[in-house]
Amino acid sequence: MKKIKFTGWKKGMNKIKFIQLLHHKAGISLKEAKQIKDEIVDGKTIVISAKAEMVDYLISQAEVYGVYAEVIDNPDPETPQ
Question: What pLDDT tens digit does each residue of the chain (81 aa) get?
Fold first, then answer.
């Protein structure tokens, strides 16, 4: 699993498509996906876990839908592996 950080959104964000993306491709419930969308719109930074093979797709699609996203390579550098 890898971590994806959603850092913001831009005008014209396709909220429904973004919620569907989280639900269908990240395996997040619809209720939680809507909560994530609401928190991003409210200006919060959100971190989710996703399968490594889905990370690039999720980030590229999130950006198409108007959400800024990036991979977190090492979520907590202070934590020993």
Answer: 999 999 999 999 999 999 999 999 999 999 999 999 999 999 999 999 999 999 999 999 999 999 999 999 865 555 444
Range of the domain at 34: 2-72
Q: Per the domain annotation, does 30 fall within a domain?
A: yes
pTM of the model: 0.88
Domains held by the chain: number: 1
Structural tokens at position 10: 């831009």
E strands of the chain, at which residues? 2-9, 46-50, 67-72
Q: How many CB atoms within 10 Å of residue 79?
A: 7
CA dihedral (25, 30, 34, 39) positive or negative: negative
